[in-house]
Design brief:
Blueprint: E1 2-6, H1 16-26, E2 32-33, H2 41-51, E3 68-72, H3 73-81
Antiparallel strand pairs: 1-3, 2-3
Length: 92
């Protein structure tokens, strides 16, 4: 039903499977990022959401946090079929 991608240097928590399954069950049609950079606007939104007892926050930045990303399977297939308009960010 979903496609999980972890960056090659990501260190998953012991109960990652259970946590991902729970969150996917709560938002089955959503893209779910499992990480956000600490100084980003999205990180501030995540902190505020947690303080308010909410398990989710919308991405506020102009990029998708992707160290850990869960996509609905059809969205992942569509993404794989598209060609990026810009080169990879690590191309110099």
């Amino acid at each position: 039903t979903h496609h999980l991608v972890l960056q090659d240097d990501a260190v998953p928590v012991a109960d990652l499977r259970e946590q991902v399954l729970r969150r996917v069950g709560e938002r089955p049609a959503a893209a779910i990022s499992l990480y956000t950079e600490w100084a980003s606007a999205t990180s501030s939104a995540v902190h505020l959401a947690a303080w308010l007892g909410q398990p989710f926050a919308e991405v506020c930045d102009p990029y998708t946090p992707c160290i850990g990303l869960v996509l609905p399977a059809e969205a992942a297939r569509e993404l794989a079929r598209t060609r990026p308009e810009v080169p990879q960010d690590d191309v110099m």
